[in-house]
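Example record for the data management plan.
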Amino acid sequence: MTLTIYHNPRCSKSRKTLQLITDAGIEPAIIPYLESPPAAAEILKLAALLKTPVSGLLRESENEFKQASDLPDLENDAALANWLSAHPRVLQRPIVINRESGKAVVGRPPENVQELLR
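Corresponding structural encoding:
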């Protein structure tokens, strides 16, 4: 099984999710998304895998979201994906993908990753 995790090592949920994956004997591909933000096209793919509009990937509690003066219409997935690519701190975390099965989950709570480990 090949998993990919969009990981923020400073986030306790992200660390716990990564630990659950490695405890299952899987070494995932780790994308430090704050250092290497996903392109807009990848954000659109993530939203599709998660079966959510791009607005479902927003962390609305983040100050960067609350204070954004350049936030596009939340119904415009393409514009919002571009915005998220430029503001990766606002992206939900962690996102874990099993590309083989075409499934993805947000590790909030971390136990959500169990769905991909079955």
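Summary line stored alongside the record: The chain has one domain: 3-117.
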